[in-house]
Amino acid sequence: MELLIQLCVQAVFAAIASLGFGMVFNVPKHTLKYCAFGGAITYNFRTIFLGLDFGIELATFLASAIIGVVALYWSRKYKVPRPVYTVASIIPVLPGTYAFNAMVTLISINRFGAKPELVELFIHDGLKSISILFAITFGLVLPSLYFLRLNRPVI
Amino acid sequence: MKNLSYEEQSIITRGIIKAAVLMSEYGAESILIEQTAQRLGRALGAASVELSLIPSAIVLTTLYGEQSVTTTRRVHHKPINMSIVCEIQNIVLKMEKNDHDINYLYDILKNLETKYYNRWLVVFMVGLACASFAFLQGGDYFAVATTFVAAFVAMFVRQELAKRRFVMIITFGITAFVATIIAAMAKIFAITSTPNIALAASVLLLAPGFAFVNSFLDSFKGYMMMGWGRWMDGMILTLASTVGIILAIAILGLGA
Fold first, then answer.
1. Contact A126, A84 (CB under 8 A)
2. CB contact under 8 A, A83 and B212
3. ipTM of this predicted complex?
4. Do B132 and A10 touch (CB under 8 A)?
5. Per-residue pLDDT tens digits for A36-46
């Protein structure tokens, strides 16, 4: 029950985040609700996979693979290119805090010298943010590569 | 298939490359650009369309019988606008279905009007979006509130700079600077226990998501030049925002 409430709250906030970024990319009006829905799906699946103890990279990878497949279905149905849905949907799972901490640590290393604890922190945060970014992109690319083999337009 | 004279073929080629350039400028995936050009060519009666894509230009050839027409256009990258990409996609589908001629394509491309969202609505929603991101990352209420204000002002600044047609690099740098200065207030006045989340979330509106995702999609489908170009594009924009953040942190003397 607690998990359910947590999922609902997170879904709402993830949807708002995706909605805002959909507007920045100026997606057509009728696709906005799917962008919001996609953001909620992605974040919720990641939470579920994290709960199953998959590790954040694998959880992110699976979540973005799922949104890739869902976007494929939507893009066929509404005749809209896929990135319109997917890029806005993955915004809530971006490793923003990790990347920012890595950058701040890098500045500190530059200013105060390469102390072991700073270097350790930098490698940890940097590696996490890069692996999550790769997980997102690989997850998104996977479904479309499946259709590339058939050599015909997706929409 | 109808008979195409050389002049007609030139006109068709110009129409097709116009659509391809628009798609490339506003951030469509490479495979989508190629398929759009080829489908338009087939719908307009060319035997086949071949094109070569590099980040700064498009070279396109239409073939018909013994004739071939080649033309090149420069591509100037503009801020991402998915409405235009969708519009052109729809034109292609319509032309395939209803057998329109080239004048129809020219008409539509000339009168292509983008519907932008209301400016203040976008500013407000981006503020909310960044605040939601801060909440999801585990920030407390004051961090979320600070993020909202910072992202709100930063998006306003970004729109103002975009209106004055500055280079994207300058826009991103200044926007990141403004966002960090405002978000850093939470740290200076110690109103929140999670100031780093506020700082990170308030510059999220500058994440070049499309550049990186498109870069990977392109590289995986064999458009290596486009993939590298977009990757560099994203890196430069990230670097520009980083410079803005570093400058703001240095001025405020936060020392991280």
1. no
2. no
3. 0.86
4. no
5. 999 999 999 99
